[in-house]
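**Entry details**
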Amino acid sequence: MSFLAPLRLLLLVPVAALVVTYVLMQRRRRKYAVRFASMDLLDKVAPRRSGWRRHVAAGLLGLAAVAMVVGLARPTVETTVEAEGGVVVLAIDTSLSMDATDVQPNRLDAAIAEATAFVDGLPEAIEVGLVSFDGTARVLVMPTIDHETVVTAISGLETGPGTAGGDAIHASLTAIEAAQSDDETALRGAGAQPEVSDEDADGAPTATIVLLSDGATTQGSDVLEAAEIAADSGVPISTITYGTEAGTVTVDGEVVPVPPDAETMEEVAETTGGLSFEAASPDELAAVYADLEGDLGNQTEQREITLIVVAIGFFVLLAGAALSMVWTGRFP
């Protein structure tokens, strides 16, 4: 729990002082009763039974005061809600190494199936784009809320020679910039100003890149330099290193090993503040996408619970007053 007006909690000081005063007064009362009454008459002068009842009523009133002060401080709690917007660009490696069958039926087919499930599971308000890359990087679908279009494009992915991971990041950043620019233009065209979400205000990203690759970059721009640009733009890249050390493909009759480059992929994620995953099977890839879906499809926000706390304090106050009147015949 946090507070929007924490300085108001200083009002708990006089409440604490009141509690201390009450305790001291009760001790003095008992002390004087012992001094001026015989032990036989003590229970009549300071009856124990009514005493604990009186303390219960007083305690409830004290709790009510605490609740009221806490309510004045405007308490908030963190809640998880479905994301109301944002941009996610899937950058999927379609190099020839994705034909490796160490992941059944092969790396690309398994990646297509799980990426499809991932897109289907994202909230409708999130714009999803698709970039494929082999020797070159191509924006197949600009970020859109039409997830079906993205799914259709994913199903048509095919492999080609080369791996241009750095170019894929550049293409993804360009797509994100265009999408965010279009959103802002559309708002202004409708006579509205773009709203800054809680995530914007807190510095959290409204766009991210999910980069799936099974090998080292062999063509185009350097992937780590591209990651630095993404970091400067405030766009995190979550990486998925896909495949096993045993992966091979046959090129011109020659068997070529295609082990994944987990070290570079992890560095890309760390550089940009994204998440880093490794997957060596369809089940592991499905689990990775499930984690990403929960991370990207939900957002945390602070929910103010002032009314709830004040209501609790009010009902505790009523309970204390009612018990006092029932047990002692008077309001404390």
